[in-house]
Write a structure and sequence with these properties.
The protein contains 13 helices and twelve strands. With about 375 residues, the chain is of the alpha/beta class. The chain has two domains: about 180 residues, D-Maltodextrin-Binding Protein, domain 2 (3-Layer(aba) Sandwich); about 130 residues, D-Maltodextrin-Binding Protein, domain 2 (3-Layer(aba) Sandwich), CATH 3.40.190. The strands form four sheets. Strands 7-6-8-5-9 form a five-stranded mixed beta sheet, covered by helices on one side. Strands 3-11-4 form a three-stranded antiparallel beta sheet, with helices on both faces. Strands 1-2 form a two-stranded parallel sheet. The relative contact order is 0.18.
Length: about 375
């Protein structure tokens, strides 16, 4: 009897050890540490809230389909039951304007998570729109040593989540062979007159006027030369007019991810990185101060830094964050840096935008200037 009981106990112990080993096998690298008390508090808060409200720029994270899959994984991982309330938003600047108005009017935010690039996050910091959070206390995955990108934004207003390589989008039915651009000069060929699209916010033109990239003098001259080539304006993520052939190219885009998402649907689009510049346009997530479900928002953001979260980002968004092992974005960036060793390599992050402001570099001034030039306005 005693032997039987001990044998039973031994089997139980071995079974428990086996279970632990099995669980360990499924735990993702770097994520085996116990959850922090801060994260557990956020999880409990998210359980009570039960909703994640999202106002989103077109296509990002796979829109409602991708975000719903992420929430399904989050719910299994953390024992939550968060439901998605999804609204298709507009561009980063338009969404930022709407959310800032709501915040100033002391209304509830239209989203629990704000998605934006460096300048938008910096604006959210200055206006008070974005909540300051101790993100390192929430993220399960340790930060890599000496990362090229600090994953936590200044003062904790959100986190960097994905790297985007900026370039030129082109219609593969119209632009072939030697016509595929490898330089920003290639779009100036007479044959492309009136067939080039740009974004309404002059993406790439005003950022590239910064002294440490091309500089104001170079970009002002370039804007004058490219003006006859411009046939119209389209958004970074709305590439239908290039895919349909209404425009041959878009210069510059906000990141190659939009092109890849269109390619996955069979659109005849290609993406070229010019030999002069490899620009990593990092995107970030933050929680509005007036969010209705702040814990669900924080949990969603923290999850993006798990290995599983990064894989889902690539699956649905065609990007991930280059600081992590096995990052596909890093492989692409390394490939282009090897291909164009003399190219300028620029990280567009919130810290960079903050540094530029401190140094008196006002990109908004360049933006207004080039908008006037490209739209033919005198004032």
């Amino acid at each position: 009897m005693f032997f039987a009981r001990n044998l039973s106990g031994l089997k139980y112990a071995l079974g428990t050890v086996s279970t632990l080993f099995l669980l360990a096998a499924f735990l993702l690298p770097g994520e085996a540490a116990a959850r922090s008390a801060a994260l557990e508090k956020v999880i409990e808060g998210a359980k009570k809230e039960g909703v994640l409200k999202i106002l989103w720029t077109e296509g990002h994270f796979g829109a409602d389909v991708g975000i719903n899959e992420m929430l399904s994984v989050i719910n299994k991982r953390y024992g939550t039951n968060i439901k998605l309330q999804f609204t298709q938003g507009r561009s980063f600047p338009a969404n930022l304007g709407r959310l800032t108005q709501e915040y100033r009017a002391k209304q509830s935010s239209s989203t629990d998570v704000f998605l934006g690039s460096a300048g938008h996050m910096l604006s959210g910091l200055k206006s008070g729109l974005l909540t300051k959070v101790d993100w390192e206390a929430l993220v399960e995955r340790p930060a890599p040593p000496n990362p090229v990108i600090n994953r936590v934004n200044p003062e904790g207003v959100g986190m960097a989540v994905a790297s985007r390589i900026v370039g030129i989008v082109y219609n593969t039915n119209l632009v072939k062979g030697a016509d595929i651009p490898t330089s920003i000069e290639d779009v100036l060929k007479p044959k492309w007159k009136g067939q080039i699209a740009i974004t309404p916010y002059i993406t790439g033109f005003y950022q590239h006027a910064a002294p440490d990239i091309f500089g104001e003098k170079f970009m002002t001259d370039y804007v004058k030369r490219i003006k006859p080539q411009i046939g119209g304006f389209i958004g970074c993520n709305s590439l239908d007019k290039v895919a349909s052939g209404q425009f041959a190219m878009l210069i510059f885009d906000c990141g190659r991810d939009a092109t890849v998402r269109y390619q996955r649907r069979g659109a005849p689009l290609g993406h070229a990185v010019p030999k002069e510049l490899i620009r990593d346009n990092v995107i970030d997530l933050g929680v509005p101060a007036n969010a209705e479900h702040p814990n669900a928002g924080k949990l969603f953001i923290a999850f993006q830094h798990t290995e599983e979260g990064q894989k889902l980002l690539w699956k649905h968004g065609a990007y991930d964050l280059e600081i992590y092992p096995n990052s596909k974005s890093k492989l692409l960036i390394d490939e282009f840096r090897a291909k164009y060793p003399t190219a300028k390599y620029v990280l567009s992050t919130v810290r960079r935008a903050q540094m530029q402001e401190k140094e008196g570099i006002k990109l908004s001034v360049y933006q207004k200037k080039y908008k006037k030039m490209l739209r033919g306005r005198k004032k």
